[in-house]
Amino acid sequence: MYVGRIMHTHLVTVPPQTTIVKAKDIIAEKRINHLLVVDEKEDLIGLVSDRDVKQSWASPATALSVHELNYLLSQLTVDMIMTRKIITISPGTTVERAALIMQENRINALPVIEGKKLVGIITTTDVMEVLLRAIGFGEGSARFTVLVEDRIGVVAEVSRLLKEKQVNIRSFVTWPEKNHPDIYQLVMRVGVEDKDKALKALSDGGFKVLTEYVKDLTPYLPKT
User: Which of 6, 28, 148, 170 is the most buried if burial means most Cβ atoms within 10 Å?
Assistant: First the structure.
């Protein structure tokens, strides 16, 4: 999956002279978490998050009068608080690469630039949605895990056993088991109606299947 397929293209942009008060109103009205700051040429020059705006808001405990507070806030503009050193990506960036960039840099959004033009934005919420869709969560499916050795053909074996029983795999995700080198978790989802049939097929085929959390994985490790 590429960023260009899931990025938001209906962008909310503001000029750098936008007041903090106005920025707060726009964020609330549009129900967004980030404002893209652009210059007169529509080039991206900054990024402002709802957190930036909240942190810039004066504390209710201030000694200023309401009139003084409102005046102060009216003088603050987004260019005073925006992030200027912006990390951007292209539409051809994979979603997993975008997720890694956000994790490594501890940021929640990435503007998308094509050539020199701002064309979109992607957030951690978008990445999470892709992940949930990829694993088939919330689609009336049943989830289970098989621990397997990291060897050629093991995925084919698991798939063959399910295919022989006419079980359709709705999603299939793998990742290494951190406490056991050379062991991978195969996390699968099948239709709820096929769960029992799938578990029996894999068990009869010599695989041990996990359907819930267990503290000790030793009994479920493949025999070498």
Answer: 148
- Distance CA(172)–CA(190), nearest Å, equals 9
**Nearest-10 crossing angle of helices 20-30, 66-75:** 80
Question: Nearest CA to 184 among 145, 157, 156, 158?
Answer: 145
CA atoms of 92 and 94, how far apart (whole Å): 6
Q: Which of 213, 214, 209, 224 has its CA nearest to residue 167?
A: 209
Who contacts 97 (Cβ-Cβ below 8 Å, separation ≥6)? 89
CA distance 145 to 165: 18
Query: Whose CA is closest to 54, among 79, 81, 72, 31?
Result: 81
Q: pLDDT at position 58, please? A: 56
Instruction: Residue 125: name the closest of 176, 44, 188, 49 by CA.
Output: 49
Q: Which residues contact 27 (CB under 8 A, 6 or more apart)?
A: 33, 35, 50, 53
Summarize pLDDT for 140-160 with one digit per residue, the tens: 789 999 999 999 999 999 999
Instruction: Quote the pTM value.
Output: 0.73
Give 147's contacts (C-beta < 8 A, 6+ positions apart).
Answer: 177, 180, 183, 184, 185, 186, 208, 210, 217, 220, 221, 222
